[in-house]
Amino acid sequence: GNSVTQMEGPVTLSEEAFLTINCTYTATGYPSLFWYVQYPGEGLQLLLKATKADDKGSNKGFEATYRKETTSFHLEKGSVQVSDSAVYFCALTTNTGNQFYFGTGTSLTVIP
Amino acid sequence: DAGVIQSPRHEVTEMGQEVTLRCKPISGHDYLFWYRQTMMRGLELLIYFNNNVPIDDSGMPEDRFSAKMPNASFSTLKIQPSEPRDSAVYFCASSPGGSFTATNEKLFFGSGTQLSVL
Known about the structure:
Chain A is mainly β. Chain A contains no helices and 12 strands.
């Protein structure tokens, strides 16, 4: 079946620290992979996506590379800011369906 | 476009009462999804519609939950009777449709309804 597993939080980092949030997946068909971000009191917003193996999605300094060999899509940022404090969701969808499969979310808090 | 609009933002009710959550998707979007978010279970898909027709309701927890989409611009999620374990944030999301693997396809989320059942 289709599922996403991401590292449990919460994660607390100091400003300008390096961020990695791990995400692995299982999928039938050919998945596209996504990172969504949820800021406090808001709905989820698309952060970045990758639709095929070896693609790199990037946005706002965040990056994630679609690794088919390790079935992973880890989120990274070189220098986090306080404004990056949010919950991050890894997700997938496949070309055989029209629904998303989300991970449980990882809460990130960045302290000055 | 104003985005996906959900109402109310907050709902506090007593156990046994009926609760109705509302959603207005983005105009022109063919897909509408209802999700529930809790600390314990994360984000769960409850049901989704395509062109107002329910496609997959396997995530609806039990018969107390029902969802309708009478037209392309409105959907409701109803809980009757409500129970304390239904307390969660309920999100509605919409999508233009087609393949999510296409470059520009994604889900657009509303701000959610925070439901507390006492």
